[in-house]
Amino acid sequence: MMTFPTFTSSQTEPRLRGKELGTHLRKHIVKNYAGYTDLFAVAGATPAQVRGWGERALDRSADWAPNLAEEMAGIAAGAGLEPWQVAVVNARTEILAAIDAIGHGECSTSVVLPESGPPRTVQTWDWHDHLRDAPILWELEPRPGHVVRTFTEAGALAKIGIGTAGLGVHFNILRHESDTADLGVPVHLIARRILDEAASVEEAAGIARSARVSASTVITVVTESDAGSIEISPAGVAVIPPGPDGVLLHCNHFLDADLAAGERHATQRPGTFDRFRHLSDHVEGLRQEDQNARALAMLSHAPGAPVCAHPDLTQPLNQRWETLATIGLDLPAGRLRVHQGGPCQVTEATWQTF
Question: Polar residues bias: where (predicted)?
Fold first, then answer.
């Protein structure tokens, strides 16, 4: 069984926690940073631009969440990088928006709130195949008695995750016409603060609204009894609730009517709508208590809109997409269940519980 690297922090002070992580996962972090410099270069960014964006992201982060900026500085010290370089990894969504990079892969998320029992969630995480070694699983204690476990990229402070306060998050990228090259707070830091601080969808949305952002994303927040997809863009923040049937689906286009007016993927990446239709057509499978069944309900290799993606090696690296992970949240246990790869490779034995 293939598994992702795991790390459990023993340090609780932000800079020391970051340095400990950076020291133990130095090779992973340095390799991930190098992978992003390659991606940005192929997409048309110069080294000077990337450094400038990293420095601005670090400044914005320090203003909005000083403790998280300290943690990034600690990761840099441990990994032998500069703080702005770790900020580049955390701000990769913002830098891709600044470059105006568009691709055809990306993630699909399903949350079902059943009439009884805990939420049933699953998402695919698609990204560039040359970054398939980027993911790690990280456990930390941001405050006494509160444990956060996150599936993230080496050097990034959070992505998909769950906390012992009973709240978890899924994560999908979006694009909006208001996205700008004037870098704001990285959306990955918003996910981290939600995991660290929020206990409800409302609290999570408040954290998102407090950040000045330059790029768009959707953070789907799940608790034992509630869920909401928090759509974030420079034009504003909106919360999409589950339907009357308890189902909440999201791919890579805005669902809020006002924000959808500025949608970028609608014309440039229309496959997101086909993936959303696939999820809608397979809700009965996504309702299942068994996570294997939920993952298999995601399975689609449809040309142009695969929910389970495999890279086309004839394409340049910025246009090669692969489903690198399939992930579900176990809220009662405060744990993630993670499969390395796409739904077509799932078996009961391939799940890594963290």
Answer: 1-13
